[in-house]
């Protein structure tokens, strides 16, 4: 399994509660490559991440996803993870009563299989080392999973899991949101340290800021549930400088969002309550 | 003849008590309880028809054989505990007791209640059936009449008992009565930890009722940790009243594991009588098959600045039903009292049922009180998160269940008991 991975997404369509969000998305990510997906809110970026990981809320209606030729869509969520897929989530769950250490040890052992469990000493050394890299307080090991963590602490904890689990294909879903500049640097260092020919990355982001620290090989713009434009790092720079309007204009897109027709709109003619 | 309807043989109860040479006051008390029993009804429980439970077989007193050494204990008992400061009751009476000589020298009494009634009669008489009124209902009256074996734990003033004292109540003969009475008296500024286990071995599947009462008295400044784990078999109906009375600045920590396989009614009540008294109650419960459970925890504040907290966590599987009542009562005059409670039920199957009923009854203005209750299923988002790290669905569910129980299990004062409880939960959930 140490060879370079290849993730292939072909014509992927997915719905949530009957609404189609992904409308035929194509993408190929190979080992050693860093792909960034950018786009305004509501264009289906996070849906793509969740669908690839197999979130039960999303239903795939058409298309194919393979990892090294294996059908990912046929796999259960945990099988996808053990095949090497990893999703750093935008809003990781909080789980009371399960410590970070218990959780990570279970995750590591799930990969290693029965009879080959990691020893406690090795596990602690591994954790302590990686936590130091991320400038995390070792105390976090014994805290309940994500419970009471700040936004930044949760993101670091996601990256910690990535470092410890050594996945082959990493999806980072808005890992930069809610991070201050120091935390952003630490998280980016963690990702950069993991770059290797045997690992591919898909970075989903709203802002170009993260890409100052992690230089992507490919940049894709997502609108209306599909990739509408691709390029190199310079595309991210141009989006940062000029926004998305020129892309919409170029492609004749009026509304870039998808599946949002029922969205609640704040009535504009009301007065804000006084405190 | 109302007597004929009692599930115990009145005459045999009194006769066998006399044969055990207990003092007259106790035999008289039994007779009085029998008279009362004839006039009393079963307790009225919230949403539970206890009158439909199998309450026909209370067994009769059978004198057990004393064991000479702990090595002779039946198999399930051996794996549980160490044998220092241990008391074992098998069916109707004590079969084994040990207490470290240095504790005895300090005046600590730790023996079965039958022996204590004979040897420390006046002391026992001050407390016996004083926290629980025998006239409360049919069950308490039957208990007062037919109790046997039991525990008497007495800790003199200013004595701190460092090691936990342990008791084991084992039933393996459905014809023998099994109604122990545990009486704990902690004098001023003393401190003690007591742990007990109720378990049953195969008895051929005959029905039996465990009709137990626990009474705890903590004098001023005394501190008591009381842990009790019940894992009786399917054929045993477990009925338990636990009552503690706290004087000024006294403290009790209850840890209760309700892990029976049969129907269970338990009522754990603390009377915070003294100013500055403190009660901390933690209960876990696992229900399986068609089990019916009715668990009440109740803290009654009378003392000023008294504080209480209770946490109940129940996991319900299959078609099990649990009614969980948390009652915080603050009496008029209990100023600055603080009573908190949380009841949570986790349902693992669509046919399982759980009701969490938080009840605050407050007759004083200058107090704090809070409650939280929830009934829910395993969170799909949490399962997804764990599975996305390669953990199987079964393992993820297991971790979430233990996490749910952790606020109680991880607080258990004795590590071995914590492990044991973990193991029992695991066995009960079959994972």
Automatic annotation (TrEMBL), chain A:
Molecular functions per Gene Ontology? ATP binding
* Sorted UniProt keywords: ATP-binding, Nucleotide-binding
Which Pfam families does the UniProt record give? ABC_tran
For this protein, the record's InterPro entries field holds: AAA+_ATPase, ABC_transporter-like_ATP-bd, ABC_transporter-like_CS, FeS-cluster_ATPase_SufC, P-loop_NTPase
Occurrences of domain ABC transporter (ranges): 7-249
- Please report which protein family the annotation says this sequence is part of: Belongs to the ABC transporter superfamily. Ycf16 family.
Protein name stated in the entry: Iron ABC transporter ATP-binding protein
The record lists the organism as: Gordoniibacillus kamchatkensis
Q: What lineage does UniProt assign to this protein's organism?
A: Bacteria, Bacillati, Bacillota, Bacilli, Bacillales
TrEMBL record, chain B:
The record's section on InterPro entries has:
Fe-S_cluster_assembly_SufBD, SUF_FeS_clus_asmbl_SufBD_core, SUF_FeS_clus_asmbl_SufBD_sf, SUF_FeS_clus_asmbl_SufD, SufBD_N
* Top-level taxon: Bacteria
Which residues are in the SUF system FeS cluster assembly SufBD core domain? 171-404
Q: Where is the SUF system FeS cluster assembly SufBD N-terminal domain?
A: 102-166
Q: Which NCBIfam families match?
A: sufD (TIGR01981)
Q: Which family does it belong to?
A: Belongs to the iron-sulfur cluster assembly SufBD family.
Protein name per Swiss-Prot or TrEMBL: Fe-S cluster assembly protein SufD
Q: Which organism is it from?
A: Gordoniibacillus kamchatkensis
């Amino acid at each position: 399994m140490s060879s370079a991975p290849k993730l292939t997404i072909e014509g992927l369509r997915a719905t949530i509660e009957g609404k189609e969000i992904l409308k035929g998305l194509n993408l190929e990510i190979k080992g050693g490559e860093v792909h960034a997906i950018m786009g305004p809110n509501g264009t289906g970026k996070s849906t793509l991440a969740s669908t690839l990981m197999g979130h039960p809320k999303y239903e795939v209606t058409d298309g194919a996803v393979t990892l090294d030729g294996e059908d990912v869509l046929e796999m259960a969520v945990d099988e996808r993870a053990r095949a090497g897929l990893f999703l750093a989530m935008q809003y990781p769950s909080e789980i009371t009563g399960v410590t970070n250490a218990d959780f990570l040890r279970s995750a590591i052992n799930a990969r290693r299989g029965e009879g080959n469990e990691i020893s406690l000493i090795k596990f602690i050394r591994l954790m302590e080392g990686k936590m130091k890299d991320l400038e995390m307080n070792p105390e976090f090991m014994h805290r309940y999973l994500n419970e009471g963590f700040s936004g930044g602490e949760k993101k670091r904890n996601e990256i910690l899991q990535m470092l410890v689990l050594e996945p082959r294909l990493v999806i980072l879903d808005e890992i930069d949101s809610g991070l201050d500049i120091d935390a952003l640097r630490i998280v980016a260092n963690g990702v950069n340290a993991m770059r290797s020919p045997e690992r591919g990355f898909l970075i989903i982001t709203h802002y170009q800021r993260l890409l100052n620290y992690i230089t992507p090989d490919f940049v894709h713009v997502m609108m209306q549930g599909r990739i509408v434009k691709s390029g190199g790092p310079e595309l991210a720079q141009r989006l940062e400088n000029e926004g998305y309007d020129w892309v919409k204009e170029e492609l004749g897109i009026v509304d870039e969002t998808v599946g949002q027709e029922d969205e609640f709109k704040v009535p504009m003619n009301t007065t804000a309550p006084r405190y | 003849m109302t007597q004929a309807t009692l599930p115990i043989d009145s005459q045999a109860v009194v006769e066998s008590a006399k044969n055990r040479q207990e003092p007259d006051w106790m035999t008289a008390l039994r007779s009085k309880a029998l008279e009362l029993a004839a006039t009393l009804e079963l307790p009225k429980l919230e949403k539970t028809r206890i009158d439909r439970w199998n309450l026909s077989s209370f067994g009769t007193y059978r004198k057990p054989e004393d064991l000479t050494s702990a090595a002779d204990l039946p198999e399930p008992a051996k794996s549980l505990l160490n044998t220092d400061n241990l008391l074992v009751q098998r069916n109707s009476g004590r079969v084994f007791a040990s207490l470290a000589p240095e504790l005895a020298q300090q005046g600590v009494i730790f023996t079965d209640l039958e022996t204590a009634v004979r040897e420390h009669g006046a002391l026992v008489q001050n407390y016996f059936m004083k926290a629980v009124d025998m006239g409360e209902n049919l069950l308490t009256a039957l208990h007062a009449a037919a109790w046997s074996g039991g525990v008497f734990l007495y800790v003199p003033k200013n004595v701190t008992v460092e090691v936990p004292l342990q008791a084991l109540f084992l039933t393996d003969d459905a014809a023998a009565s099994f109604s122990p009475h545990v009486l704990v008296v902690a004098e001023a500024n003393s401190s003690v930890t007591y742990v007990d286990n109720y378990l049953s071995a195969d008895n051929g599947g005959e029905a039996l009722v465990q009709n137990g009462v626990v009474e705890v008295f903590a004098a001023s400044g005394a501190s008591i940790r009381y842990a009790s784990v019940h894992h009786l078999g399917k054929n045993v109906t477990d009925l338990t009243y636990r009552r503690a009375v706290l004087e000024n600045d006294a403290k009790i920590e209850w840890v209760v594991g309700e892990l029976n396989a049969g129907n269970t009614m338990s009522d754990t009540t603390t009377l915070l009588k003294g100013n500055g008294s403190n009660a901390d109650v933690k209960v876990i419960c696992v229900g399986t098959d068609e089990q019916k459970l009715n668990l009440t925890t109740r803290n009654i504040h009378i003392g000023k600045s008294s504080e209480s907290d209770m946490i109940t966590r129940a996991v319900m599987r299959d078609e099990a039903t649990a009614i969980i009542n948390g009652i915080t009562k603050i009496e008029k005059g209990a100023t600055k009292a603080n009573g908190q409670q949380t009841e949570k039920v986790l349902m693992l199957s669509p046919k399982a049922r759980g009701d969490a009923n938080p009840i605050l009854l407050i007759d004083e203005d200058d107090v704090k009180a809070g409650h939280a209750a929830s009934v829910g299923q395993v969170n799909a988002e949490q399962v997804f998160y764990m599975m996305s790290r390669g953990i199987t669905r079964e393992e993820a569910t297991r971790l979430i269940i233990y996490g749910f129980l952790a606020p109680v299990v991880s607080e258990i004062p004795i590590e071995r008991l914590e492990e044991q409880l973990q193991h029992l939960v695991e066995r009960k959930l079959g994972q």
